[in-house]
Amino acid sequence: MLYQEHQRLDGISSPHEKWKEWMRLPSKQGKDRWFFRWQWNGVFPGEEDEQAETDKGPGYYTSYVIGAQWFDDEEPLVITPKAGCSKIDFLQLFSRCLQAGVEIEAFSEIYGIDMEQPRIKAPELQSVLSPLIVVHFLSVVRVIVQGGLKKDYIQREENLKKVKGHISVLRHERTNVLRKRPDKVFCRYQEYSIDIPENRLLKKALNFVRQLLQTFPRSESRSSLEHTLNQCLSAFAHVSDEIEVWELKHLKHQKLFRTYSEAIRLAQLILRRYDYSLTNIQSSEEDCPVFWLDMPLLYEHYVLGLLREAYGNQIRYQEPGHTGYPDFICYDPLLVMDTKYIPRFKDKTKISSDIIRQLSGYARDRMLFKKCPTEHIPCLVIYPEEGNETNPFLRDGKPIPINELLQRIEEERSAWGFYRLAVPLPTLR
Q1: What pTM was estimated for this model as a whole?
Q2: pLDDT value of position 229
């Protein structure tokens, strides 16, 4: 079955015995995330005001999550981006998120991959999964390289001119005594080195990534990733990439090296994705593992990247309040911002009352704002569209002042102090 986001699954008249009300995904901050859900009217959150127009009757509806999942033992379900966002340049999208300072741990919440289930043939998602894993992996490895590669004691065996560690008697007799080489002694010793299994695994995955990047279309994002890759590989110059598949199972995740644990997880994903074979890269592209990608959360992080590129730490992300967690807050000047990944948002004549109530609550939250403002706090709703790839918060490479930005946007007619801004998703040329 092939569908887009926010579509009804055809031919299913009652809840499935296995899935009941929904196929649930891991939650973030207590929010319900789902791949598809049974709904009686097909109206999504934020669209209640349009119920009369959008009521499509009961059935399973896909959410704002793309990916590939098994609906049952025989039938796969493939979800692609919604209409109007079908030409997204995911490579640039992911790169922008992480290059602009989005936290790596937060980025991990955007998607999930299950390598244990059978793969699904989904050429429609070819441009999504590989760039996602590559960008995430390189970003994590870059952080490791900046902090210095992990070292540990490893056991070496070598035929030396003088004793180091202790003599390996049996190997010494076979190698030197029987061959009458009195100038040599076969030793076993420990060396404090970066050439440890964890680093070998990372280097092997980096070599896979080098091959993968050659399959991506030439672009500025690809060139930037290749530059990052070369920087990472130079740090691994004295590390071997020889590691056996069985050794991967013995690599342990350590709490003191959380970044390493994440890099190892991603490296294993890359190696398993292509069955540990550099020659299998092309043949595996149409078949993808079971995975999901949360598009609203991805868009939220993309906008965060753009905002931080323009305003730096002036923008606060997911500040906790009594009324919830607004996506972005600016305290000087005061501004509440929230991303809404909603189909056809740009075509609506007004912002829905639910969104107005939500952002109005943020703007009056005593936990978010320690003192009562003398004037109402403006609220900005940010939504996606295909279009210009430039940062709308910059002008000639310099940030547009917040007050000036709002003056350039038409104020919402139905509510004072409400504005909307389209922040385009990067698209393939």
Answers
A1: 0.82
A2: 93
